[in-house]
Amino acid sequence: MIRVLAWCVWLVVILSAPVMAEQKRPDDLNLPELNFTIEYPQTFTLSNGIKVYYRSDAELPLLDVTVVVESGNVTDPEGKAGLAKLLAENLKSGGAGERDAAAFDAALDDLAAPLKVEAGTYTTRCSISLLQEDAAAGLELLAAMLRQPRFDRERFEVSRHQMLEGIRRLADHSAALSRQILMGRLYAGHPLAVFPTLASVSAVERDDLLRMYQRYFGPANTRIVLTGAIDRAQAQNLLELAFGDWQAAVEAVSVPALPQQSHGGIVLVDRPVPQTTILLGEVAIEKNNPDLYAVQVMNYLLGGGGFSSRLMREIRSNRGLAYSVYSYFSVGRRLPGVFIAGGETKNASVAEVVGLMRKEMTRMCCEPVSADELNQAKQSLINSFVFAFDNRHALATRILDQDLFGYPENYLDDYRQHIAEVSVADVQRVAQRYLHPAQQVVVLIGDRQALQPSLEQLNQTVEVVSLEDLL
CATH number of 266-470: 3.40.47.10, 3.40.50.800, 3.30.830.10, 1.10.472.10? Predict the structure, then answer.
């Protein structure tokens, strides 16, 4: 029996050999160019000036609505960081119009309508998903929340307590904590450097929510995205009924310029952990910079391309010093953004990993990348671009953001062509312009005693920050 099985296996191998020989490697396949057209949303304006981005999508009997209000974390008053986030939470949970908090929750439950309200850096976003048949009722709830919030006192106290607990637990999340420290150093003296603390959140009162709401929430600061199984005329009619008579005088959000910065040095948070979280960063690029496309290609090669990137290949694959290592440019929407490189490694390897990160950045500045490396990066960016448009609501929201923040005209239409035009010389030029390894802020969260040899090797000024001061 065993001999028969052996002969059968041998026969399968022999017969399949020609087929295996004919198979091509994925790298050798010639695939047709992927062509697609961006389907832009239609726009119209309600009678009170609110701009609407509309797109029909009859694939499912659903509607997705997102309301974007220009009021976010940058509008937090001094000493009350976290106010915008508390405002967002209490818009959702604090009742609206004739409904108290419990009744508003029940009305949402009756519609099985998930509602999400979040405050970001510059905006607060309210999103709801509705069945087609519930469009009028759902929009009425959404409009009541935005136009007549009740900010229930008990719910406010609960939300403030929850935020305070979240800040206390930040110590257990080194990735978030390290980024917060880095942003605080890079944007020092600016609202972008400020994050909620136990003191600032404790200082927020319910009346602060009302004042911020009255200051910024109104038609002049509001835009709406609506997509789904509804025609334009009906969509415009329903939105007009829900929002068209909303009249509220509000202020435009003003964002101050960045103060002059001087960077460098190491910030260390002493934590009794077996491995260290590492971040290196500097202020970088904003959206209207013509170098944007070359920077994206350069960063893909450096640390944004996963296992094909230089940082991952050298630090993880070749040396086994980190499970994950990466870099990215966070492109600024209204102010210059940041460049960040990061990873985690055992305490004894910190100086080596920081040195390798800097070495790869310096290589990018001093040595031209290969043509093959460049082409692989460009093709990856171009081919992945299409996946940003598989959701019509996400696309319409992206178009809203481009309008709101003043992105270059035809940014999406021209993106692939701009990426394709990036040259070897462009990559080296932008690396030299935007990567300054010796001047970057280094943030380390790890065991100070175990890190002492690495700190001596790095030979830079070290600022030790206590966790209590950060929270």
Answer: 3.30.830.10
